[in-house]
Write a structure and sequence with these properties.
This protein is α+β, with helices and mostly antiparallel strands. It has helices at 17-29, 72-85, 93-98, 101-110, 132-139, 145-152, 175-183, 223-226, 236-253, 283-286, 290-306, 318-324, 330-344, 347-357, 359-368, 372-385, 388-407, and strands at 3-11, 33-35, 38-46, 62-65, 88-89, 118-121, 156-160, 170-172, 190-194, 201-208, 211-216, 257-265, 268-273. Helix content is 44%, strand content 17%.
C-alpha cells in the first residue's frame, strides 16, 4: 500500500498557544488513514516569511492562515500557491482582501438578513490628492448629521466601514455625541448603524468548515470575560438559525474560518458584525471554548488535506440570489442558503470522514487538554499578554476552564446539525 504524506502549513502571526496544541495533538494521534489504495499520514510545520520565486512549487496541501488579512507578503504568496500549485488555504485571500464589513452588510441585506439600519457618511478629512479640491467642490453636497441621526435612529454606533477589534467604534445616544464622533473620525470612512436597543442576548457564532459553535458574549467585560461559559442560552431553533446564518456568510464569501455576532431582540437575531475571517482563537480570551477551536481546526485541516479538497478560486453568488428572489419567508430562504453552504463545505462528507477516521485525533486531544503540555502552552500565551505577577493565577484559571470543557465533552459539540428541509434542491437548481 503506497504511503503518502500530506503537508499542513501553519501561517502565523502572534499565535502562541493554539499552534502548540495543533502540532502536538496531531503528532500524538499518529494518524495513518487508509484511503483507497493509499496509506495517508500527516506532517505539520510553520510557514516562514522569505523571498519566493513565482515559478517555485508549494510543498503544502493545506495552509491554515492567520496572517493574510494584514501581511501583504504572506497574502501574495498564498495567492500564487492557489493559482499555480493547487494549494488549499483557509479563507479565499481575494475575498478577505476585498469584502470588508461594508460589502458584507450589503450582500447579506440583499439576501434579506435583518442587519440593523446602516448609513455610510462621507469622510471628515481626506488624504491630499491632486484632483481632490476640484472633485469635492464640484460634487460634494452638504449634509446634516442631525437628519442622519433621525434617519438611522438613535441610539446608534459610528464605526469604520472596514474596521475590526472595536477600533474607532463610538456609541451614540444623542445628536451631540453623533456630531462629536464625526468630528473625531479624521480620515476614516464611517458607517452610522442603528443600535439594537433592548436586545436580550448577544451571541457570537464561529464557523470552521461546516462546524459551528455558539457562545454567549458579554461585550461589557474585559477580554477574558467576554466569552462566557453559559449553556442552553437559546432554543434549538434559535441555535439552528445562528448556525445557518454563520455558514451562509462563510460559504458566500469563501471563508473557512469566520465569526458572526448577532443581537437578539423580540426573538429575532440581528447580525451586526460578521466579516471576521480571522477570529480570536487564543486561550486567554476564549478559554472554555478553546478546545473546540483547536479540535475543529484540526479536523477540518486533516479532512481538507486528506481528501485534497479543491480550492474554490472564484465566488459564485447567483444560487444565493436565486433563492433571495423567491416569494418566501426569510426563515425558509435562510434554510435554502444554508443548504448551499453545507454543500459547498462538504458537510455530509466531512461528518462521515470524521466518524470513520478521526477518532484517534479526538482521543489524543482529550488527553492533551488535560496534560502538563497543555498547561505549558497556556502559560506561554499568558506570559506574553499579562504582567508577571498575574501569569500564574490566570494560567491556572484558564487551564481549569479548559479541563472542565473537555470533561464535559464541549470540544466535540457542533451547533446546528444539517436541517432536514430546505427550499431549493441541489445548488444551481432554480
Amino acid at each position: 500500500m503506497p504511503q503518502i504524506t500530506r503537508h499542513i502549513g501553519l501561517s502565523l502571526g502572534a499565535d502562541i498557544c493554539w499552534p502548540l496544541a495543533f502540532e502536538q495533538i496531531l503528532a500524538d494521534s499518529k494518524l495513518d488513514l487508509k484511503l483507497g489504495k493509499d496509506s495517508v499520514q500527516f506532517a505539520c510545520e510553520r510557514v516562514t516569511l522569505e523571498p519566493f520565486p513565482l515559478a517555485a512549487g508549494c510543498k503544502y496541501d493545506v495552509v491554515v492562515d492567520r496572517l493574510t488579512h494584514w501581511l501583504a507578503l504572506r497574502r501574495e504568496w498564498i495567492k500564487k500557491c492557489i493559482l499555480m500549485d493547487g494549494l488549499y488555504v483557509y479563507n479565499n485571500p481575494w475575498s478577505v482582501q476585498s469584502y470588508e464589513k461594508h460589502s458584507s452588510y450589503c450582500a447579506m441585506l440583499a439576501l434579506g438578513m435583518p442587519v440593523p439600519k446602516t448609513m455610510m457618511v462621507p469622510q471628515k478629512n481626506y488624504e491630499p490628492k491632486p484632483d481632490l479640491d476640484f472633485t469635492l467642490k464640484t460634487y460634494a453636497r452638504l449634509f446634516d448629521l442631525g437628519k442622519i441621526g433621525e434617519q438611522v435612529g438613535l441610539p446608534a454606533f459610528m464605526k469604520p466601514y472596514d474596521g475590526g477589534g472595536w477600533q474607532g467604534v463610538t456609541k451614540l445616544d444623542t445628536e451631540a455625541e453623533l456630531r462629536q464622533a464625526y468630528e473625531n473620525s479624521e480620515k476614516w470612512l464611517m458607517h452610522v448603524q442603528q443600535a439594537v436597543a433592548g436586545f436580550d442576548l448577544f451571541v457570537r457564532a464561529v464557523g470552521i468548515g461546516p462546524q459551528v459553535r455558539l457562545m454567549k458574549y458579554d461585550a461589557s467585560q474585559p477580554l477574558h470575560g467576554r466569552y462566557t461559559t453559559a449553556r442552553d442560552f437559546c432554543s434549538a431553533e434559535e441555535e439552528q438559525v445562528m448556525a445557518d446564518t454563520c455558514l451562509t456568510i462563510n460559504a458566500f464569501f469563501g471563508w473557512d474560518f469566520n465569526s458572526c455576532e448577532a443581537l437578539r431582540k423580540d426573538g429575532v437575531f440581528h447580525p451586526i458584525d460578521f466579516a471576521n475571517p480571522c477570529p480570536d482563537n487564543q486561550v486567554n480570551s476564549i478559554h472554555h471554548h478553546w478546545p473546540w477551536y483547536v479540535m475543529s481546526n484540526l479536523k477540518w485541516a486533516v479532512f481538507c488535506a486528506a481528501t485534497r479538497r479543491p480550492m474554490r478560486k472564484t465566488l459564485d453568488f447567483e444560487p444565493f440570489y436565486a433563492i433571495a428572489k423567491q416569494e418566501l419567508p426569510y426563515r425558509e430562504k435562510l434554510k435554502g442558503y444554508a443548504r448551499i453552504a453545507r454543500e459547498r463545505l462538504q458537510a455530509d462528507a466531512f461528518t462521515e470522514f470524521a466518524a470513520k477516521h478521526l477518532r484517534p485525533l479526538e482521543e489524543a486531544a482529550t488527553k492533551w487538554f488535560q496534560s502538563e503540555r497543555c498547561m505549558e502552552a497556556i502559560t506561554k500565551k499568558v506570559a506574553h499578554m499579562y504582567p508577571a505577577h498575574e501569569v500564574k493565577d490566570f494560567s491556572a484559571r484558564f487551564f481549569e476552564l479548559v479541563k472542565q470543557a473537555v470533561a464535559d465533552g464541549e470540544h466535540l459539540k457542533v451547533a446546528g446539525a444539517a436541517p432536514k428541509a430546505a427550499v431549493a434542491g441541489k445548488e444551481g437548481k432554480k
